[in-house]
Design goal:
Blueprint lengths: L7 H12 L4 H5 L5 H9 L6 H10 L5 H4 L1 H20 L3 H12 L7 H16 L5 H18 L3 H17 L3 H11 L7 H20 L3 H17 L6 H14 L4 H17 L3 H10 L11
Length: 295
């Protein structure tokens, strides 16, 4: 029998099964073994045409639902990238209007609708159409929806991180810390999520500094530096060394260790052309001045 080999079929099958509130055993009953369903969903086994057809009948969806899943995910990624760029450029009003308009034309079960909902809540908060507590409640509901229906660790991570950030911005440091530390239980089994873990460690350390818990903050920073060096990721390495220097300074460490951390931060900012960060080091930390006397 011919087999379908798209890795997205397993993700689609899992999403549809959960949508119908079926266990793997329920879905497999009379069609195949539970183990086979498990292997398909995990991407280690490719279903035959006949098996996929039988599963589509039980799930009450056309066979093409599985075949089009790859294109659907690519579309979601493109839209996500566009909305993220707008968000980074603070085009909140444009995002709000666009998201609200598109949500009206999408079924509640569609993942694209959930993506638009994510940006709708965040843009509404930034535009002060809703307060931060309402935004957090909406994001938590969205997170629950992703857990029940979709298999998207990256999106779950982003939603939870947004909740933690909003808590932090509103000085609810303990709630922010709790949310961030919950994210450490995620499986960081991809390069993309590994970068997110480094950012997570950095953010946790900032909250702990706000709470004057310097020893714990330093441990998180050290882990972030270790991962950055191990996997050759420089995206936050300069900020991590800066944070390390600041923590050492606040906790009364030796001048040598403080200077060493700040010097490494400055060197990285210089290599990456991060002039603003270089100036912050020069202006706010006298221990770094000897390294820049020739400039």
């Amino acid at each position: 029998m011919d087999q379908f080999t798209s890795p997205q079929i397993g993700l689609a099958l899992r999403r549809l099964r959960k949508k119908h509130n079926l266990t793997q055993k329920d879905l497999a009953n009379g069609i195949c073994s539970q183990a086979e369903i498990s292997k398909i969903e995990s991407g280690t086994h490719s279903p035959t045409v006949d098996l996929l057809y039988a599963l589509s009948v039980r799930l009450q969806v056309p066979l093409t639902t599985f075949l089009n899943q790859s294109n659907t995910l690519e579309t979601i990624k493109i839209i996500d990238d566009e909305l993220l760029t707008k968000f980074q450029n603070k085009k909140y009003e444009e995002i709000f209007r666009l998201s609200k308009k598109n949500i009206e034309h999408l079924d509640k079960s569609e993942e694209l609708r959930s993506l638009y909902s994510f940006y709708l809540h965040l843009s509404a908060f930034r535009l002060r159409k809703i307060d931060y507590r309402t935004c957090i409640i909406q994001l938590q509901r969205l997170s629950d929806n992703y857990i029940k229906i979709y298999y998207s660790p990256k999106m779950l991570f982003r939603i939870k991180s947004s909740i933690a950030t909003i808590y932090q911005e509103n000085s609810n440091f303990l709630y922010s810390l709790k949310t961030y530390e919950e994210l450490l239980s995620f499986s960081f089994d991809s390069e993309e999520l590994l970068v997110e873990k480094i950012r997570l460690l950095y953010n946790i350390s900032k909250i702990l500094v706000s709470l004057a818990k310097y020893e714990r903050a330093l441990n998180y920073v050290k882990e972030g530096i270790y991962l950055s060096l191990r996997f050759k990721d420089m995206s936050l390495l300069g900020q991590l060394f800066y944070q390390k220097g600041y923590i050492l300074e606040m906790s009364g460490s030796t001048l040598y260790d403080i200077n060493d951390a700040y010097q490494k931060a400055y060197t990285l900012f210089d290599i990456l052309g991060m002039e603003e960060y270089k100036q912050i080091l020069i202006q706010n930390n006298k221990v770094t001045m000897p390294y820049h006397s020739k400039e």
